[in-house]
Amino acid sequence: MTYPVDRRNVIKSMGALAASAALPFSMPAQAQKKPTGKPIVIGLTISQTAAAGVADHGDHLNGSILAMEEINANGGILGRPLELKPVDVDLLSPESCQAVVRKLVDMKVHAISSPFLFVPIPAMDASVGYKCPYLNGNTQRAATDLVAANPQKYGHIFQMDPSEVYYGYTFPKFLEDMQDKGGWKPINNKVHIVQEQIAYNQTISRACQEALKTSRFELAKVTDIQYPVQDWGAVVRDIKKTGAGAVMIDHWVAAEYAAFVKQFRANPLKGALVYLQYGPSQAELLQLAGKNAEGFVWSTVLGVYADEKGRAFREKYKKRFPAKVMGLCYTGSGYDIVNFLAQAWTAVGDPDKFAAVNDYIRKTPFRGVCGWSYLNNARQEGVHYPVGTDDLEKGMAQLYFQVQNGEHKIIYPNKLIETPFKPASWM
Questions:
Q1: Residues 109, 82: contact at Cβ < 8 Å?
Q2: In which element (H, E) is residue 298 found?
Q3: Cα dihedral angle (327, 328, 331, 334), rounded to 10 degrees?
């Protein structure tokens, strides 16, 4: 993992780091007293050594550190200091996911913050005997369906963002919007899905195929790929042979996306809109692909807005972690989870009252830098905008970006747009 600051120093100094947050309640203007007493502890599942996911997990940790520093600088929570305890996890291993949560439970943490685990259910099961608040960005409907089916067992588990199914549901709507605006003139109304084999990507593909049936677009072909993708040459040739007007690369690894965009640009399908599901949110895409990433489109159901609140966070984050490229997803999620927990603990008055804190989180909408989390539903997952609700203030917006001039710019939804879609050079 590439950290904006040295990872070893971050972890060594974790207990000493101090923080402040844009909490909904007002902080007094005068200087705050230094927090004292027994720390309030958030345990984090942070992948540092696994083969994949470390970039997002590093973003989540950094966002959490920023929130902690802000909170502690403003007097802590209930006068007590906030402390983070990250534990390494292999997010692809059920055994590791379960073991890391058991370790946090043994530490008697007051809450668990997790960016995502590809096998979240074993981790969920490891927490049920303890039931501290467990906030995550897993983006998995299978996990939230389990919460809905077993509210007594999993009532302490909250997914801040909407589930992955919305990547599929929203894609045809996005295509229609781009066409209606006139910025994209599709060569035909066909969609080619290139899908990876993990359950997350398969769920997205199925949802997209279903949504296409009620749209003006139609499925052209589904092509399977298997992580890790060593060579995209055969995929690029298949894309050209199929000739669909829109291509969804339903994958998730930024470094492999970087290889794809280079090979596609060398042998493009002229006129095609090419969408890369989620992975370009990771800094590696721009770092590895450079100018080759220009024109490609991607989206995330969990992303930092570019509104006033989002811009302020971006500036603070870049100042604290002056990396070349800031991740636009889990940086904000880590920051929001810490602030939401701080708000809940302050309202309840005691972080050890898990049931009361969980009830507050469930019933209280939270507006973070990634939009609104409304969790008072059976699945206890964020409500999606624009599919789950048509009110931007009642849900979390799925953000569609395009790489323009070396930066990620929001091109959809319309209420949050930074810049219009621009036809890529191969168009």
A1: no
A2: strand 297-300
A3: -140
In 132-283, where does DSSP find H-type helix? 141-149, 151-154, 165-181, 199-212, 233-242, 254-266
Helix H, strand E, coil C: the string for 233-265 is HHHHHHHHHHCCCEEEEECCCHHHHHHHHHHHH
Distance CA 1, CA 115 (A): 15
Cis peptide bond prior to 386, omega within 30° of 0: yes
Quick: pLDDT tens for 46-105: 998 866 678 899 999 999 999 999 999 999 999 999 999 999 999 889 999 999 999 999
Supply 242's token pair: 């199929």
The letter for the amino acid at 27 is: M
Per-residue pLDDT at 282: 86
| DSSP labels, 269-324 | -TT-EEEEESGGGSTHHHHHHGGGGTT-EEEESS---SSHHHHHHHHHHHHHS--S
Strand order in the sheet with 157-159: 82-87, 40-45, 111-114, 134-136, 157-159
Euclidean distance between CA atoms 396 and 413, whole angstroms: 11
Q: What are phi and psi of 243, to 5 degrees?
A: 70, 30
Residue 43 and residue 61 in contact, taking contact as beta carbons nearer than 8 Å: no
Euclidean distance between the first and final Cα of the chain, in Å? 35
Which residue, among 402, 396, 340, has the nearest Cα to 370 in the 3D structure?
A: 396
Q: How far is CA 196 from CA 48, 87, 121, 200, in A?
A: 23, 28, 21, 9
Tokens of residue 339, six digits:
């602030």
Radius of gyration (C-alpha) of the chain in whole angstroms: 21
